[in-house]
C-alpha cells in the first residue's frame, strides 16, 4: 500500500467540552479540575492524577487519567483494543491475557498477568469488561472492574491485584477532527509493593498507553475489523440498559 502521511495529533482543548452519553458517578468524559491535578502535557497527551484532598474514593490508591485526540476514526481505535494479538503492543509488561467467560457480545470476564520486576511477585487480575456503544455520534465506553470468578482461581507465585475502577472512553469528533480518547484507572496491586512506589510507577501509564494506542491507530497496515464496524452500523445504543432494565 502507498504510505500515507500521519497527521499531527490535534490538541484535546479543540474538543467540545460537554457531558457525554455514558457519563455516571464513576465515569466522566470531561475532567473536573477540582478533582484532578495535571502531571504532564507532552506530545498532545494530557495526564492527570487524582488530587489528595481527602475525597479520594479509592483511599490511598491514586487514580490516574489521560486525554488526547487521536487522528483516526473510532472504529480503528476500537479494532486495536479488540484485537488480542495487539495487546502486548500497548499494554505495559503484559505476559498473558485471555477471556475467562464470554457473557455476551458486550460483556465478558477477562484475565491478564503483568510482569513485575524483582524482588516483587508478578500480578494478575480477573475483571468484568462491559462495553457500551452509540452510533450517532460514534461513542464507545469500555468499563473494567475486578470481579472474582471460580473459573480463574489464584495462582501460586502470583499476587491477585484489584482493578478498583478503569475505563476507556472514546468519542468521534465532527468534521474529521479525529477521536477524543479518555482513559482512567485506579488499581491496587496488593501484596508488599509500597504504595508510594506503585503510585510513582503508574504516573507514566496514561501517557505511555495513549502514545502506543495512537501509533497503532494511525498504522495503515492494520485494517478495521468488520465485527467492530457492525457495532456502529446499527442506529441504536448497544450494550446500554433500557429504562426497564433490559438491554437492547
Account of the protein in words:
Helices cover 17% and strands 35% of the residues. It has 248 residues and is an alpha+beta fold. Strands 1, 2, 3, 4, 5, 6, 7, 8, 9 and 10 form a 10-stranded mixed sheet that branches. The longest helix has 13 residues, at 205-217. The termini are far apart.
Short structural description:
Helices cover about 15% and strands about 35% of the residues.
Topology of this protein?
Blueprint: E1 36-42, E2 45-50, E3 64-70, H1 74-81, H2 87-90, E4 94-104, E5 107-114, E6 122-135, E7 138-146, E8 158-160, E9 162-172, E10 179-188, H3 195-202, H4 205-217, H5 226-233
Parallel strand pairs: 6-8
Antiparallel strand pairs: 1-2, 2-3, 3-10, 4-5, 5-6, 6-7, 7-9, 9-10
Which regions are unreliable across 5 or more consecutive residues at pLDDT < 50?
Answer: 1-16
The arrangement of helices and strands along the chain is EEEHHEEEEEEEHHH
Proportion of residues in extended strands: 25-35%
> Can you give the helix content as a percent range?
10-25%
Structural class comes to: alpha+beta
Anisotropy-based shape: globular
Distance between the termini: 39 Å
Mean pLDDT: 87
Number of helices: 5
Cα radius of gyration in angstroms: 18 Å
Topology, number of strands: 10
The profile of the biggest β sheet is: 10 strands, mixed
Descriptors:
single chain; 248 residues; ten-stranded mixed sheet; disordered N terminus; alpha+beta
Amino acid at each position: 500500500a502507498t504510505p500515507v502521511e500521519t497527521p499531527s495529533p490535534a490538541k484535546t482543548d479543540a474538543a467540545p467540552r460537554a457531558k457525554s452519553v455514558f457519563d455516571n458517578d464513576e465515569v466522566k468524559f470531561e475532567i473536573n479540575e477540582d478533582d484532578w491535578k495535571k502531571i504532564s502535557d507532552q506530545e498532545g497527551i494530557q495526564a492527570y492524577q487524582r488530587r489528595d484532598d481527602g475525597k479520594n474514593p479509592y483511599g490511598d490508591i491514586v487514580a490516574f487519567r489521560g486525554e488526547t485526540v487521536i487522528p483516526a476514526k473510532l472504529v480503528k481505535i476500537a479494532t486495536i483494543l479488540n484485537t488480542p494479538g495487539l495487546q502486548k503492543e500497548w499494554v505495559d509488561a503484559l505476559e498473558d491475557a485471555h477471556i475467562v467467560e464470554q457473557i455476551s457480545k458486550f460483556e465478558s470476564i477477562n484475565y491478564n498477568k503483568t510482569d513485575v520486576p524483582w524482588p516483587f511477585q508478578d500480578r494478575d487480575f480477573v475483571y468484568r469488561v462491559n462495553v457500551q456503544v452509540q452510533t450517532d455520534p460514534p461513542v464507545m465506553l469500555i468499563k473494567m472492574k475486578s470481579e472474582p470468578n471460580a473459573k480463574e482461581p489464584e495462582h501460586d507465585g502470583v499476587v491477585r491485584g484489584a482493578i478498583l475502577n478503569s475505563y476507556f472512553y472514546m468519542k468521534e469528533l465532527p468534521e474529521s477532527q479525529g477521536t477524543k480518547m479518555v482513559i482512567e484507572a485506579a488499581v491496587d496491586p496488593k501484596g508488599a509493593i509500597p504504595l508510594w512506589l506503585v503510585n510513582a510507577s503508574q504516573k507514566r501509564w496514561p501517557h505511555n498507553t495513549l502514545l502506543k494506542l495512537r501509533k497503532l491507530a494511525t498504522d495503515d497496515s492494520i485494517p478495521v475489523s468488520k465485527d467492530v464496524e457492525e457495532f456502529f452500523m446499527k442506529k441504536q445504543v448497544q450494550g446500554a440498559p433500557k429504562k426497564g432494565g433490559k438491554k437492547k
